Model the fold of this input.
Amino acid sequence: MPGAPVLDDIVIDIEDHGGRGGGSGPPPGGDDGDDGQKRRPFEPPSPRRYYTGIALGIVSILMFFMALSSAYLVRRATTTQWIPIHLPAILWVNTLILLGSSAAIERARKRLLIGDLPGFRSSWLITTGLGLAFLAGQLVGWRQLAAQGIYMATNQASGFFYIFTALHGVHLIGGVTALIYVSQRKIDAKKVPLAVVADVTSYYWHFMDGLWIFLLAILYLGK
Amino acid sequence: MYSSALACMVTHDSHDRSPKKGFLGSLGRSVLSFDHKVIGLNYLWLALSSVFLGMGLSLLMRIHLVWPGAHIPLAFGSASIPARYTALTMLHGSLMVFMVLTTAPQAGFGNYFLPLQIGARNMAFPVLNLFSFWATVVSLFGITFSFFASLESGLTLWVASVALFSLGSVCTALNFSVTTVDLRAKGMTLPRMPLTAWAWFLTAILSSLIFSILLAACTLLLSDRVVGTQFFGMPQLSASAIATPSWQIVPILWQRLFWFFAQAEVYVAMLPCLGIVSHLISTFARKPVWALRAVVLALCGVGLFGFCIWGFHVFENGMNPYAPPVFAIVAESLGLPALILLVSWLGTLWNGRIQLTTAMLFAIGFVSLFIAGGLSGLFLARYDLAEASVNDEFIAGHFHLVMGVAATFAILGALFFWFPKMFGRLLNESLGKAHFWLTFAGVYCVFMPMHWMGLLARSQAAPGSSLAYASAGTMLRKFITVATIATISSQVIFLFNFVWSLRRGERNGSLNPWRATTLEWSVASPPPPDNFGRVEPVVYRGAYEFLVAGGGEDFLPQNLAPENVSLSEQASFELTDREGST
Done:
């Protein structure tokens, strides 16, 4: 089926069986088949769906994090004994790394637009590398907190810190997976243009970046 | 008139293909298929098994209410009865709300017929579609098995399963939205979309918002249960909060998150049913939908308002005292879109040439149940009034009438309507009608008395009223239970009809036995894997072009080219042009 990344060993048989599915018979009214001229063959699926899809996906993920944030804010406002945790300094470094990766992915897109494929690939690689560096930095931050004896269940502030960073990290892993997939896929083998895939991935990546800044902000301001 | 030419095409059966391709053969094709029709059908099987399981559970509950001493094997076992009864209620509710009401009208019929109705070949993201289905299956197993586990681990399993279900639902919603926005065939503008497609689209938008929230809430709860965090746990209370008894404080946050999801969820369950009913009523009254655009706006209104009224479930838990009237007003305002829908249904029926097929009976039955259940909803939206006048049994009666029965009637109507398209055979009409009447009478007997019991509980009409309540209550309770047993028994008629017709049902003689206008009726029964073949369908008109007068057919299919409409039909169509046409 067009547009569907079908697994190689499970094939849906869509060959036209003597016009059975194809012609679908004459419409009522005794048509003699002339209207076949007005019916166009199915065009290859437009890539618009990927843009719509990522936009709606981002909205859903945003709602998810909004629910978590509102829980955080309600909790923060209704307790007296809020024990703030000291955010590890590496988080700020990570933020810069993530911002750098957003800049890199934008550079990659621009390179692709002007047709500079090697430039695109190198920028894309830099983005992937910085994304992985961010994840590593998050883990380092976790280790630092654990070294101080602050774990997820220690108190409410730590719980929220860990769950925010963990869930953001999980979504970012998804983003990194997409980045790796894009860099590995063959350019002409699929029906979806590389520019579309790169665009859609970059939207997600920027969203992850912005989301991180938001989460860090409320964690910091809520301390 | 075209049926003879196409009679040979109607028995297309994808499972007849020789299993050369596909390493798992026909089983693999049916459970690992990316075809939206196969996935939709699989959802329907899932919903069908869940509804019977859920009905069985409700039977157990009713029996236990009336005969508490009855020993029911398996259900209660050795664990304490109150805990097991609560678990039973929870399982019944989860199965019915998640696996039947959220699944059958949207993921089941929607997956099957949305691409067909808008002229697409498949959903926008078929792989994601398959993932959603399997997430739902796994969550069904999780929810069911959580009942048999010990209390603590069972609850954790339940929460995890619901989280997985939410994830699947968000993905399904994404698929539906993108498909409707981007995959419509040429000429299928939004105003020409059938109301079913509109309803699926609006439901998808709402679902993608609310299931994300449920997923977040479940994630926090799971973290509490598994890791030991205190997101919902006993907080250190602020000075103002200390004034409220602690047993009320603790669940506040969970309640707010949960009800933000749950209240909108009931409209997610209802919206596809509203679309289906409008569609059925128009088709079987042979009239365009009365005030079509108003109906679309009303559906939007139901979704929008439904999203904003969660607060009336949490008034007792420290909410701002100025909140109740605000939420009550918004909740009451739901009456407006509901009224528009009602007037449209009645306006469509008015002067129509009504064909009382089983599908139409279910659609009209829906209207009756929607009024009955909906009116009590208007009353319940006034929290102060409701709290003083009725107890929870009234609320149970209300939501069962709208969700449990009205929505189910819409699902059954859709099933009777689309069965010929999905299976190439017709369900038996006599059995269908018998089933309808028995069920219709039965559900009123089951759920109306619950309203009375709710009123009785708070009634202070006469001295010694508590005694009167006790005896009246017992009698009513027994009546409800007997009615439940009778109604559930009459579902056997449906089950027999369904299974029998799958095998031996009367073969569908034409592509379009109901003479409907939408695109799914222009393809074979069941449709081929790529729906429309190599050629994309073109849509020339709206979905409800029915004619009151005129020779020949009394309807114009959406994909019939204008030059193929015979002159006499054209003339009569222009004479009777009405708002339904675009």
